[in-house]
Write a sequence for this structure.
């Protein structure tokens, strides 16, 4: 233990850290809380969508769909990897959390404001400004502010405070649900609905910003290196060993921090990878439209959404364990995170594969029975998709963002090439097989990248030996890794 060891004290907001001395219990509770919050959040948006489809005219619901899609694109474009970079940097250097947050928040505010302004100018300058101008601009603003909330959520993840994120999600989504349903009941107008959905998002952002700034005020408070302090410090590190001893590659000291250099070195590759990942993950919808028609798109998109909804559990696990992956010195943490995520995916996929024949008509109606074969193929890809969640987070956590971006670009090429061959032959089943093959390609690529980075970090001559050692130390049953 270093003589000058300091304890970073982070203010408690929703959960007292002392109640989670047992690291495994703490992580399990945080994962369950995060999964519940995400499920409730997705459910609230689903209810609003169904209510809007019933209350709005078909044309107005089309504007609602366009506004939501464009708003999602605004959120992805204005983030461009900044939030994941922030979480990684804060996890490595909690004492620099204040300057990191304020620097990147300033940049994100400008990016979000500029994006909303561009959308507003373009929509009001178009020939359809009377129909699309106000609602689409308000939806763009709503998603832009929501992306700022997500940015703050990643700040909390870096400080191992996913409980804050989960609480804020519940408040925001609950407020959005109430305001949206009240607006639709009062006046079935898409612009009124957009404004009603914007209000709780703005309130949540202001509240979250106040919490983040209050956390800033406590970062840097130091305590003497007592035994109790060391135990608290290990708790802050999500149950791993000493955070400083675990720390991964160090960022440059933020005393001489230059956002421009950090953006092109660290943020841009992450952002490029996220955009390319979003493209290869959803471009098959457009390719099915091109080569198989609109009815096929409806079938494929319906079952794809079900598989996409299953990602809530892997996403919750990674939200809680991200700091541990960033600080990890070897592959033990990755193995401990990956096997329950992949195990859940295997069990869920197997159950749904067997029940697909009645699940699909139960959810969507008998008209969608033709999508059952594609659904079963997509379920085969879900374990790989879940595993890739952990692999890509580890790759980025160990400064492999350039490898990540390269792999996502190659995955996009592989996906388009396979879809071009398989969709004309097998329609939506071909698109599903292309998704499975793309996820398998990404798994192999991420494993290779992590092996190379891990061997350089540990000095191991044979990466396979490091993996074998990590599996044995993690105590994972029935797992064999060939060197």
């Amino acid at each position: 233990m270093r003589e000058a060891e300091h304890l970073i004290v982070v203010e408690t907001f929703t959960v007292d850290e002392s109640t989670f001395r047992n690291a495994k219990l703490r992580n399990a509770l945080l994962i369950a809380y995060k999964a519940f919050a995400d499920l409730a959040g997705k459910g609230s948006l689903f209810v609003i969508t169904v209510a809007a489809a019933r209350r709005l005219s078909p044309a107005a619901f089309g504007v609602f769909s366009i506004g939501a899609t464009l708003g999602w694109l605004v959120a992805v474009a204005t983030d461009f990897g900044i939030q994941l970079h922030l979480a990684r940097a804060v996890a490595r250097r909690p004492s620099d959390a204040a300057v990191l947050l304020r620097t990147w928040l300033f940049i994100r505010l400008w990016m979000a404001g500029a994006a909303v302004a561009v959308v507003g100018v373009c929509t009001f300058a178009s020939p359809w400004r009377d129909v699309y101008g106000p609602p689409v601009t308000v939806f763009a603003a709503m998603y832009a502010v929501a992306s700022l909330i997500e940015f703050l959520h990643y700040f909390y993840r870096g400080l191992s405070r996913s409980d804050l994120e989960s609480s804020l999600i519940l408040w925001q989504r609950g407020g959005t649900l109430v305001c949206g349903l009240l607006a639709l009941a009062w006046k079935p107008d898409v612009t009124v609905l957009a404004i009603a959905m914007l209000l709780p998002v703005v309130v949540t952002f202001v509240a979250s910003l106040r919490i983040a700034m209050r956390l800033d005020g406590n970062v840097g408070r130091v305590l003497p290196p007592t035994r109790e302090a060391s135990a608290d410090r290990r708790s802050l590190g999500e149950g791993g060993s000493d955070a400083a001893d675990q720390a991964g590659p160090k960022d440059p000291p933020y005393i001489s921090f230059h956002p421009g250099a950090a953006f092109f070195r660290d943020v841009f590759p992450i952002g490029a990878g996220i955009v390319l990942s979003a493209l290869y993950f959803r471009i098959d919808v457009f390719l099915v439209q091109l080569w198989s028609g609109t009815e096929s798109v409806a079938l494929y998109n319906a079952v794809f959404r079900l598989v996409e909804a299953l990602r809530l559990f892997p996403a919750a696990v990674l939200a809680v364990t991200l700091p541990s992956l960033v600080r990890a010195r070897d592959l033990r943490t990755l193995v401990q995170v990956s096997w329950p995520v992949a195990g859940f995916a295997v069990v869920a996929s197997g159950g749904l594969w067997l029940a697909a024949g009645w699940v699909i008509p139960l959810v969507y109606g008998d008209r969608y029975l033709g999508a059952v074969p594609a659904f079963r193929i997509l379920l085969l890809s879900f374990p790989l998709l879940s595993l890739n969640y952990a692999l890509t987070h580890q790759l980025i956590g160990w400064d492999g963002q350039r490898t990540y971006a390269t792999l996502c670009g190659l995955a996009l090429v592989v996906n388009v090439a396979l879809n071009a061959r398989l969709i004309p032959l097998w329609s939506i089943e071909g698109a599903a097989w292309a998704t499975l093959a793309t996820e398998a390609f990404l798994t192999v690529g991420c494993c290779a990248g992590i092996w190379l980075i891990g061997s350089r970090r540990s000095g191991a001559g044979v990466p396979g030996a490091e993996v074998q050692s990590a599996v044995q130390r993690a105590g994972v049953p029935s797992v064999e890794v060939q060197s």
